[in-house]
Amino acid sequence: MRRVLVVGISGAGKSTLARTLAGELALPYYEMDALHFTGPGWAVDEDFAARVADIAASPSWIFDSFGYPEVRDLLWEHADTVVWLDYPRRVVMPRVLRRSLRRTVRRERIFGGNRETLAAWFRRDHPAWWAWSQHAPRRSEITHRTTNPRFAPLRVVRLTTPAETRGWVRVQIKT
């Protein structure tokens, strides 16, 4: 496990798991949204795809993302392992709601210095709406990729509960 994608829907815990694995396995961790959004107003880095391509070509890394469309295939082609947090909505939704509420109330700065705002809660691209509406489509797309012969060399670890994930991490730390 040297090039790892931690995938799932918003709120599944991808970043938390990726940071944990990176620390335990001594691999560099890359937060996809922090690479993508680099400035106020959710500005996107013009060199995003090139930066991700450079990282993907390196010998080891962990990304906390399914991948934005412009880099998705590249990451899946370079990865050796996909860890899929395939949690049900009943697990994901409380997590994403708590996280977004905390970020909004505390006015926490995230990617590129941006903040989640109360007004953003009413937009279709807000993490809560996104996690709800994209849960089934994301699951379907990840299922397709993990069964696609094009990505057959990948080791796929599908975890369906937080308890299963904790157990899997304990095993990875010991090996």
From TrEMBL:
Protein name per its UniProtKB record: Adenylate kinase
PANTHER family for the chain? TOXIN, YALI0E33011P
Q: Which UniProt keywords apply?
A: Kinase, Transferase
| Residues annotated as domain ATPase AAA-type core | 4-47
Iron-sulfur found in the keyword field: no
Which residues are the signal sequence here?
none
Organism of origin is Streptomyces liangshanensis
- GO molecular-function terms, A-Z: ATP binding; ATP hydrolysis activity; kinase activity
Asked whether the UniProt record includes Transferase among its keywords, one would answer yes
> Which Pfam families does the record match to this protein?
AAA
